[in-house]
Amino acid sequence: MSSPVCIVTGANAGIGKAAALKLAQRGACVVMACRNAERGEAARMEVQEQSGNERVHLMSLDTSSMASVRAFAQAFGERFERLDVLINNAGNFDLAQTSPLMTDEGLEMVLATNYLGPWLLTHLLLPSLQAGGGGRVLNVGSKGLMAYPFLRLEFDNLDGSKKFSPQRAYYHSKLALLSHTIELAKRLEGTGVVANVVRVPAVQVDLDRLPALPGWQLAIYKLKRSASITPAQMAETYVALALDEAWASVSGKLVDEKQGVVGWPRHAQDAEAAAELWRLSAALVGVQDA
Fewer Cβ within 10 Å of end Cβ, the chain: N or C? Predict the structure, then answer.
């Protein structure tokens, strides 16, 4: 792939930042899509300096806001003729949020950030992905979903009003993203665009990025952190799926941190649920032509 154009959402820290750096080091034109302008610009300057790549850009994006997603997609289309790689990395997992928080558009915040925003962003950028003749969409799942084997798509609880916990909301959003990717890959057959999910295990997060946690939770996290992989290690898989020729025509797969294809969770493979999720998602984000 010659000088690919890549978007990484949530690229100001963690795996997103590490992936942006590795993509830039491989000569890609990298768009770091970040919610916070100050932190985003600091990260962009660091990536540009460390990579020596002048084609590192910062654009504003808050995936919890469908208005922000639409503005980003329009601005991207005006600046770039094509898109080769879309990495939907931005996410929300706030353990301090113990009750549903609604966005200004009436969407539950975790679902909006982790699923509905990426759904809409991918939909709006499909023409740009197809313009290059072979685009790639990479969504980000979580290995922690394995701890919720009985979790199903809860169409009657998308706003979290019936039951809510930060963990449940997060893993439900990830289940939705997996189901969506399977359906998306089917719909993209024959277009030259592929869609996959990378299953992220426990990854080290800087302690200063954690919310204010009780001492016992912080102690558990520190123990868990010691056995976790680094963002840079995880970013290797992101970049392989984004740029390596071996993945150019692979679609509809769940890939682990070692770049191995693994099985989808059972409830992500429900075709009827996936079709209903697609319909509801389109309605929630205001898309008529999905």
Answer: C
Distances (CA, A) of 258 to 107, 194, 198, 200, 229: 35, 20, 10, 10, 11
Domain-located, residue 274: yes
Domain extent at residue 79: 5-283
Apex 64 CA angle, 58 and 65, nearest 5: 80
Identify the DSSP state of 270. Answer: -
pLDDT tens for each residue of 231-259: 999 999 999 999 999 999 999 999 999 99
Cα–Cα distances in Å, from 82 out to 129, 162, 212, 227? 6, 42, 41, 40
Q: What is the pLDDT of residues 80-110, one digit of tens each?
A: 999 999 999 999 998 888 999 999 999 999 9
Give the residue numbers marked as catalytic.
Answer: 170
Q: Residue 76's domain is classified under what CATH number?
A: 3.40.50.720
What pTM was computed for the model? 0.93
